[in-house]
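Office hours follow-up: a student asked to see two folded examples consecutively, so here they are.
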Amino acid sequence: MIEETLVLPGQVLSPDILPAPSNSSLSLKLGPGLRHIYPSTIITTLAGLLCVDHRKNAVWVENNNGRYVPQINDVVIATVHHSSTDYYHCAIIPHTAFAQLPQLAFENATKKTRPQLSPGSLIYAKVASASKHMDPEILCYNPSTGKGEGMGELKGGMVFDISLGMARRLLLNKQKDEGEIAVLEEIAQKVAFEIAVGRNGKIWVKAGSVKEILLIGKAVQATDKEALDTDEQMKLVKKLLRQF
């Protein structure tokens, strides 16, 4: 279960607040909104909700109004801007440095079989390296297994903007129980679709028609902006399906 506490910038986190995992060998994972000062001080850099996940031994600050900051292992939806000899240069968020995607960073890719991506192509990728001193690097496969695991080019469909908090909730293993998100589960009973959620505040939706895509996108965005609870989400889906 994830615990949440309101914090302000510059607060020093007490050791009592930090995760207490059952496996003591797990290293502490710091996410957005936190900075480590050697040797053991952790301070907040954003105002928002301090989220503590004891199971994953992770802690971060959730701030829906902030700019996304790439973190290692985040999955993101990016847009190819241009390419060079060995890399695709991709936009994760507007007005920031491009992320570098090696042209061979796809499942079973070789110089002959690598995807030929043009400017504007959408990709689903994982952040492999991130530092304030260097441009982030993203990959479309898992280096440990060599498999794509759902990452790669996103063909067709449409992309919708959502808050960073909503993106995190949609990426939880148990959306309904842990994230209080029931909207997609309700829609799936009537409409077949595919989605990909980026930690950078993007959701890609593909369905059988443009009308279905718009219905799903509208439902997710309304749930996000209006902070609907699960009962209100169900009512919203029923209303949208009647109009469909």
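And the second, which I mentioned at the end of office hours:
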Amino acid sequence: MSNSTSFELPPLPHYALTPLPSLVPLIPDKLFTLLLPIAAYWILSLFFHWIDTKDYFSQYRLHTPAEVLKRNHVSRYEVVRDVVIQQVIQTVVGTLLGMTEPDDFFGKEEYDIAVWASRIRIAQRSIPRLLSFVGVNSAGVAKSLISSHLTMASVFAGGQYPWLTQTISNAGGEALIAPAFASWEMLAAKALYWYLIPAVQFALAIFVEDTWQYFLHRAMHMNKWLYTTFHSRHHRLYVPYAFGALYNHPFEGFLLDTLGASIAFKVVGMSTRQGMWFFTGSTIKTVDDHCGYALPWDPLQHITSNNAGYHDVHHQSWGIKTNFSQPFFTFWDRFLGTVWTGGDVSARYERSRVAAQRKVAQENPITHSNPSDSIDSQLEPYQNGIEDAKLLSPDLQANVRPCVPVGKAQQQAAGSREQVMEDIEYGGANILAEEAEEEKEAKLAIRRSSRKRSSGSTVQAGSLKGLRERVNGSLHGRSGGVLGLESSQ
């Protein structure tokens, strides 16, 4: 029987590879990776569309149905058509990407875990030298621990475990005594293999995708040709909704979304199943960022600082050159100074809400000539929006006046409005002219309200207060300031 000293490290186990069974029977994993993000997109989008049409959770809406109807410059048919086109492109690219990936096997897990345990054993050899730099005699520490904490003594001795052995057989069937791993080394190796490494891979993939999308997205806004040729199409949705999340020019959709996620997948070396969850998670996050709701029980609204309220500012004419980050975190916006700095935006939202409701009322006047019309008008949840804005008490009027940004915020607003002008075919000057008229009417309403006090103004002002809380809350504001920033004034 051979002596264990002939082995420097515990020997690695043998393994045999076996094809990995499909996660879903009869559907290969590579095909399921293509189908799952598309299914997730439409299931989640249809859920939000359902609560839209049923008017559920209206207290958490960032925009009213009237705004969706009157402020957007693209039909729902065009949105669905372009999303389907992008998903076809996404499927083709995903198929090609899958052809570059090897088939998945299992059976090597114990071997890979043992490799990490070997690395942990080798890393322990540096402990005596590291401790010597701070004046600690590791040999003396190990000697003092050997009787009470044998494993700890072996660690301080530089990974020397002479008391841990195992019996193995060589190719000739001869029994050999070989060193073995400590239980803590195997536990740490399993934690690394099953949890830490995948977590690092997903974190790195998120960083790569966020970085790719931030700089390309920002370039689409900074370059006039890129914006007017490609990206302006997405911004015809001034009031985003869930199934419009991937409404883009086909080339932009390929470059920004499909290619960005594919590069992240390749850079971090994900497996097919890891890619399945990464692509699906990215899709769900993108839909949630465009859903138009600040739902307090939606975890995606709170896990990251990038949410529906944050991205909604980017879709407004006054914030279009801010809040470029997507789909996960906002670190690039904050690091490079492109986060919205204009303070509380609830007054701007209220103005747009009232103006949109007025347009609907003008196009669909209710004559009250029959009882059913009168009943419907009373049940309309946004029917009193105009009066709510007119009859505010004087102490709330300051909150209604749109905040005039100064300094950097003024530059952001000016740049955003200049970009809106560039999309001549769908909006341009007409959009800004409409907003100027809305601003004028809002100021007139405030002047009239100063001469028309209402005893019920506190109750009527509740809708504005609720709107402010939804917008500020969904933007991760703190102490009343949107995005955690106080007003610039």
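Two things to take away from it. Residues 55 and 355 are 20 Å apart (CA to CA). The longest helix spans residues 183-222.
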